[in-house]
Amino acid sequence: MKKMLFLLTVAAFMACEQTTTQEEKKEELKEGVEKIRQDVRETAADTREYMDAQRDELRKDLEERKREIDEKMEELKKDGSEKSQKARVKLAGLRDRIDVKLSDLKNTSADAWDSTRKDIDTLRKKSDEEWREFKADFKELFR
Q1: Nearest to 99 by CA among 62, 136, 129, 133
Q2: What pLDDT is attached to residue 2?
Q3: Rounded distance, CA 99 to CA 70, Å?
Q4: How far apart are CA 131 and CA 119, in angstroms?
Q5: Burial of 71 by CB count in 10 Å (0-12 exposed, 13-18 middle, 19+ buried)?
Q6: 10 Å Cβ neighbour count for 68?
Q7: Which residues neighbour 120 within 8 Å (Cβ) at sequence distance 6 or greater?
Q8: Contact between 131 and 95 (Cβ < 8 Å)
Q9: Over the chain (143 residues), what is each successive 10-residue block's mean pLDDT?
Q10: Are 51 and 110 in contact (CB under 8 A)?
């Protein structure tokens, strides 16, 4: 009987100790999950800030290009030659493509950011080439 009582006491003691250990592990797990949640929130905020900064940089660049084109088109309006009219048509096409990309840029979501950024980078390279070609083709208009 004493042995039985001793065994029951030991079993009860071990059960209590095991419950405490399990509770400690559950608490550690909850703390770990909360830390992960916080890290995910911080990473999402950092990613959003980075994307917003890139978006602003691209927007400013496109708006500057558009402003340069608009200024040149105003200058060309003063010159009534046929060559300046052709130049204005080319510039208007480039400006329209920039407008489309500016609109895309303003309305892009985080999911579509990579493809939008790639499209804008391609447009920037293409517009640089077209601007150089334009200046070469119409160099007498750039005095």
Answers
A1: 62
A2: 61
A3: 12
A4: 18
A5: exposed
A6: 13
A7: 58, 62, 101, 104, 105
A8: no
A9: 61 60 77 79 76 82 87 80 80 86 77 75 81 74 59
A10: yes
Q: Is residue 95 within 8 Å of 67, Cβ to Cβ? A: no
Give the integer Cα–Cα distance in Å for 72 and 66. Answer: 10
How many C-beta atoms lie closer than 10 Å to residue 134's C-beta? 19
pTM: 0.58
Torsion of CA 91, 127, 129, 131, to 10 degrees: 30
3-state secondary structure 89-123: HHHHHHHHHHHHHHHHHHHCCCCCHHHHHHHHHHH
pLDDT at 8: 56
Of 41, 38, 65, 36, residue with least CA distance to 126:
65
What is the distance between the alpha carbons of residues 109 and 24, in angstroms, rounded to a whole number? 42
**Confidence (pLDDT) at 115:** 77
